[in-house]
Amino acid sequence: MPPLSTSAPGVRQTKFRFRCIACGDVSESASQNFRCSHCGDLLEITYPHWKESGRTAQDLKSTWGQRRLSRSAIDLSGVWRFRELLPALEREDQAITLREGNTPLYELPQCARITGVPRLFAKHQGLNPTGSFKDAGMTVAATFARLAGFRWVACASTGNTSASLAAYAARGGMRSLVLVPEGKISWSKLSQSLDYGAVTCQLRTDFDGCLRLLQELVLRAPVYQLNSINPFRLEGQKTLALELLEQLDWQPPDHIIVPGGNLGNSSAIGKALLEMHALGLISRLPKLSVIQAEGANALVRTLREAAGKRLISVQAETRATAIRIGNPASWKKAAHVLEATGGACEQVSEVEIAQAKAEIGSEGIGCEPASAVTLAGLKKLVKQGFVKPEETVVLVLTGNLLKDPDYTMEFHRGDLFKGTVDKSASAGLNPLRRPPIVLDATLDAVMRTLQQSEK
Ligand code: F0G
User: Fold this and answer.
1) Model confidence at 52, in pLDDT bands (50, 70, 90)?
2) Candidates 176, 262, 289: which one to mutate for ligand 1, based on the most atoms within 8 Å of Cβ?
3) Residue 48 has pLDDT above 80, yes or no
4) Is 226 in the pocket of ligand 1 (CB under 6 A)?
C-alpha cells in the first residue's frame, strides 16, 4: 500500500501538506503511522496556499452561511460546509458523510446559577450521528482513507472512536477493525461497532496498550489508522470551533472548556482557533482550557511537573471511561494550543464528575461522564479567578447521555462509588439522585408517590 499522499487520486494537488510539529519538516506524503520520517514526532496538516486563494474572511462567512440553505449532501454536513478550511476533494460526492456536525449550542441556565457565570453555553457534540464528537473527524479521515485506496481502517478506542469509525467505514464500503480494552468500555459503545459491522477485538490491556499495538500493526498490514494521531481526523474536528463561532455570530467567547483524554480534540479546536484568528475570521482568541479526571491526569502533571517539556504518563483509572488514558498521543499539540490561547489545565475528582453530570442532566440535556468534567472544571476555574463571572463560557459536551447508561443507573441507585469513595465525600450527591421507584400498579400507590415528590 503506498504512503498516503496529497496527490492520491481524488485529492487536489498542492492544497495541503504534512508538517512535523517538532522539526517543522514539510512533506507531500505521510507514512502509515503518521509520524515524521526524520524525528518521529506527529504530523499536522497545513495549507501553504491559503493566502493566495484571495478569499476574504467576509467571503468565507457568507459562503458558509449560504450553504445552510443548500440540499446537497456535502453542504448538509456541518463539517464539509466549512470545506475551504479542510483538505480539498476533487469531487463533492467523494465525501463519506452521515450529516455530522450541525450540533446545537444550548444555554445552561441552571448550571449558570450554580457556577455564578450567567453566560454559560454547551456545544453538544453528543448529538452527532453516532453520539459523539468523533464523527466530525471521522467523516474527513474515512473519506481520505478511501481516496487513498485502503480497504481496511482501524483504531484503538475507549469506545466512541470505534463506534464512529465502524459507522463511517460501513457507509464508505470499507472494512473496519477496532481494538478496545476488555471490560473497560461501555456496552452502548461496543454494541455500536458490532452493529456497524466492525471486527471488534477486546484486548486484555488498557487503551494505551491497544494504541501501542495498533501502531505496530499499521506498519505491518495495509490498514489505515483512524486514531486522532491521523491528522485528517483533527482537520474534521476543527469544524466544531468554526460552527460554534458561526452560532455566536463570530463573537469569540472568553473561554472554551473541553475534556482531555488522548488530547486530539483540544488540539483540533486550538488549531481551528489559531487558523481562524490568522485568517481574520475572529478578532481575538478565546482561552481554550482542558479538564482531565484526577485518575487520568497526564497533561495536568506534564504541565505542572515538567513545564510541558516531556510527557509524564500515568496509570489511568476513572469511571469516565472515555478519558481513561494515561499516555496521551497528542500531548505536545495540546500543550502548544493551551499556551497559544492562554488556557488552563485542571483536574477533577470522580465525585465532582458525577455531580456535574447530574447537573447537566437536570438541564434536560445530559451527557456522558467524560463530558461532565467540563462543568466540574469550570467550577474550579471560577474559584481560582481564572474565569470571571461576566465572561462568556462554552463547555464542549463530547458524548451523548445514552453512551453510558450503566454509569447513570449506578449514580441514581447510589451504587456508583460503593466501596471506592468515603460515604461522607459523596453525600452531597444525594439530592441529585432520582432512583427508579417500583410500585404496585394501583392509582393509590402512584398518587402517594406524586404527593411525596411534591415535598
Ligand atoms: N469525551 C469523550 C466522550 C470521548 O470519547 C473522548 C475520547 C474524549 C472526551 C477525549 O477526547 O481523546 O480527543 O482528548 N475518546 C477516545 C475514543 C479516546 O477512543 O473514543 P480526546
Assistant:
1) confident
2) 262
3) yes
4) no
78 Cβ below 6 A of ligand 1: no
* Confidence label for 423 from pLDDT (cuts 50, 70 and 90): confident
Mark 161-192 as b/e (b = at least 16 C-beta within 10 Å).
bbbbbbbbbbbbebbbbbbbbeebbbebbbeb
Q: Which domains does the chain have, with CATH numbers?
A: 105-131+234-432 (3.40.50.1100)
Q: Give the three-class secondary structure for 236.
A: helix
Q: What is the mean pLDDT of the chain?
A: 95
Residue 369 one-letter amino acid = P
Between the CA of 15 and the centroid of ligand 1 the distance, in Å, is: 29
Give 364's Cβ-side CA count (13 Å radius): 5
Residue 259: beta bridge partners? 291
DSSP 70-120: --SHHHHSTTGGGGGGSPPBSSGGG---S------EEE-HHHHHHHT-SSE
Residue 265, ligand 1, Cβ within 6 A: yes
Number of Cβ within a 10 Å radius of residue 55: 13
CB atoms under 10 Å from CB of 385, counted, come to: 7
User: Amino acid identity of 2?
Assistant: P
Nearest by Cα to 134 from 34, 265, 326, 244:
265
Work out the average pLDDT over 59-64: 97
Q: Is 322 in the pocket of ligand 1 (CB under 6 A)?
A: yes
User: Looking up cell 446559577, which residue turns up?
Assistant: 113
Ligand 1 centre from 14 Cα, in Å?
Answer: 32
CA Rg, the chain, in Å?
22
